[in-house]
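Researcher: We're teaching a course module on how sequence relates to structure. For the next exercise, students receive a sequence and then see the predicted structure as tokens, so they can try to spot secondary structure elements on their own. Here is the exercise chain.
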Amino acid sequence: MPMLSTKTDRALQHYKTFSERLAEFPCKVDYINRFKSPKQQRETLEKLKKGEIDILIGTHRLVSKDVEFKDLGLMIVDEEQKFGVSTKEKLKKMKVNVDTLTLTATPIPRTLQFSLMGARDLSVINTAPPNRYPVQTELHAFNEETIRDAIHFELSRGGQVFFVHNRVHNIMEVAGMISRLVPDAKVAIGHGQMEGRKLEKVMLDFVEGYSDVLVATTIIESGLDISNANTILINEAQNFGLSDLHQLRGRVGRSNKKAFCYLLTPPLAVLRGNRGVQSLAGAPKQLRYLPRSRAPARPCPPRPDMAPCTHALRGHPSCRRRFPPGTSAGRCARKSGHRP
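Model: And here is the predicted structure for the students to work with:
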């Protein structure tokens, strides 16, 4: 059984979770990603071909031509919205009539349309785990005092903090700013351009609690599951889509502690190009949808439906589209009157 994950660190975390939960069962679990050497990958694929591995967890590497399963029965796709149509078609070609389970918190319009047509079964998990509280989401103009207070509060209760900055070229400067604002905090940096082993060490150190603040790109979007991290600050939030913000916010609030998500943007007047606009009504649409969902400070209610909001922002779904409605190709095709 293959389990397809979007991120390298996420695949490693799935491997550890599966190994722990299936330790008492006669089930061999392994993983394959760029952290493994070419020799180790060849050995893993050879065992897979012979049927010595029951569950293989990996990233896009699983759809390569040299990956062969002895008896493929079930396929799991995590964060399905992150994979393109071509990747999903490659998965279908592995074996005819294979059972497929796709997991997503923000289904894309194409997937929703398949469900409405009856081509796919759809199950919705609305019940949150016990003793969970909703994530308090706040929109702020970028301010060093807000950043300092948010980090100080989280560290004072023994927690950890994510700071998302999706620009590798100046991520060191942002980490330096946090070190200046909170001198006692141990700050770590993680992004996709780092060498594999170094990135793995940074992530594992944060999981083990050796660092207090992780300054990272969206590599953490569908990755780390850390119950002790309950504050996330997202810099330049206006550049993210609604589903991206929803996924990033999902990195916190995984314990019985109150969690906070701070969306940091330039002043709203700058965003709208209008000095008279200072209210939330003048913010980009995705920032208006997000703060009002999961904001009430009470035990966790059913999750808000992100899909209708995403549907309203991206346009109507269609199985005939070659490009998703929210992409630049889809927008250009729609303006020209051509339906791809």
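Model: If you want an answer key for the exercise: The radius of gyration is 21 Å. The CA atoms of residues 63 and 91 lie 6 Å apart.
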